[in-house]
Amino acid sequence: MNCYCGNLKDYVNCCEKIHKDLANAKTAEQLMRSRYSAFVLANGDFLMKSHHSKTRPTSEKKAIVAWAKSVNWIKLEIIDTTMGLENDTNGTVTFNAYFYQHGKVDVIHEKSAFKKENNLWKYLGLSK
């Protein structure tokens, strides 16, 4: 089975490596993909750990996990990435995350900003 993030590798050889050690995310896109998989798995600990400390919504963790469990995740579609390579310190990933909720398919369309913190890629928030 392909990884939840849409890569052709299986979960164990893809996002699970990043879930176990954030240093395995070498690009902003890899972190984005692993965060999508964490939503599919309702892995709130990883979602908090991979969120930049300046914007981390720690008080919302339970609500985020509850919402992630309440929907059926369909697929992640990466539309565009800017920079966000291993030697960069900032990057963006534009994506669509499709899910099924309340009898209909919905989509989250977002351009996310990523920034390295302690040499690890972290999700910063919506890109401006």
From TrEMBL:
<protein>
    <submittedName>
        <fullName>UPF0225 protein</fullName>
    </submittedName>
</protein>
<feature type="domain" description="YchJ-like middle NTF2-like">
    <location>
        <begin position="27"/>
        <end position="124"/>
    </location>
</feature>
<dbReference type="InterPro" id="IPR032710">
    <property type="entry name" value="NTF2-like_dom_sf"/>
</dbReference>
<dbReference type="Pfam" id="PF17775">
    <property type="entry name" value="YchJ_M-like"/>
</dbReference>
<dbReference type="InterPro" id="IPR048469">
    <property type="entry name" value="YchJ-like_M"/>
</dbReference>
